[in-house]
């Protein structure tokens, strides 16, 4: 039985995570955390009576094996440090951490002999898209990314899009071509990650979607994935929680536990 704490349990993803854990006989929801709660009574949130509710990081005392984080970019970093210091494996679904923060967590995991995982996207279709994009970049070094998310997503571009760009760069055998353009409106070409342009869309009605466009001489390739419901991410989260033993230190990407 793997014992789990969920941080950010009141959000859309956190709520889905709690439901998934509660219905899996191999998992146990032992605690939840969210700052500034007015009450710490599990019944007030529809949680099992034996599930502990915490509203202060320093007050957390739990025997959880895994810390699942769906909080905020600023909160997730401090939460991950707390988890590593208390012998819990952080599985972080919150995007927006800086490169420096990730490096610090990698060092802390090594010092504490603990594992951890940042997952830019729990959707299996998104994981496969990134893998396919890396392979395609070998033959199509010219690529751009369009990521589309719900209007409430704060960070742009998404962690998935940034990770996709990194994998495209890693898969290239030559640099993409630089095409001189003049932006008649600033930002028209999107963000630029080592020559891969990323365009972020935020609109109501969307959940999480991504297209990678590759262009070559006389041909083009498009890879697309769509997540229509947040429940679709729970399969990947379930896999991550149950396969933390496959991790080698602190790693990034669901593919590390598949």
TrEMBL record:
Its EC number is 1.17.1.8. (S)-2,3,4,5-tetrahydrodipicolinate binds at residues 150, 159-160. Residues 126-258 form the Dihydrodipicolinate reductase C-terminal domain. It comes from the Bacteria. The lineage of its organism: Bacteria, Bacillati, Bacillota, Bacilli, Lactobacillales. Catalyzes the conversion of 4-hydroxy-tetrahydrodipicolinate (HTPA) to tetrahydrodipicolinate. It is an enzyme of class 1 (oxidoreductase). Pathway: Amino-acid biosynthesis; L-lysine biosynthesis via DAP pathway; (S)-tetrahydrodipicolinate from L-aspartate: step 4/4. It catalyses: (S)-2,3,4,5-tetrahydrodipicolinate + NAD(+) + H2O = (2S,4S)-4-hydroxy-2,3,4,5-tetrahydrodipicolinate + NADH + H(+); (S)-2,3,4,5-tetrahydrodipicolinate + NADP(+) + H2O = (2S,4S)-4-hydroxy-2,3,4,5-tetrahydrodipicolinate + NADPH + H(+). Residues 3-122 form the Dihydrodipicolinate reductase N-terminal domain. Belongs to the DapB family. Its main location: cytoplasm. It is found in: Cytoplasm. It holds the Pfam family DapB_C. The active site is at 149 (proton donor/acceptor), 153 (proton donor). NAD(+) binds at residues 8-13, 93-95, 119-122. InterPro entries: DapB_C, DapB_N, DapB_N_CS, DHDPR_bac, NAD(P)-bd_dom_sf. GO terms for cellular component: cytosol. This is 4-hydroxy-tetrahydrodipicolinate reductase. GO terms for biological process: diaminopimelate biosynthetic process; lysine biosynthetic process via diaminopimelate. Keywords: Amino-acid biosynthesis, Cytoplasm, Diaminopimelate biosynthesis, Lysine biosynthesis, NAD, NADP, Oxidoreductase. PANTHER family: 4-HYDROXY-TETRAHYDRODIPICOLINATE REDUCTASE 1, CHLOROPLASTIC-RELATED, DIHYDRODIPICOLINATE REDUCTASE. Homotetramer. GO terms for molecular function: 4-hydroxy-tetrahydrodipicolinate reductase; NAD binding; NADP binding; oxidoreductase activity, acting on CH or CH2 groups, NAD or NADP as acceptor.
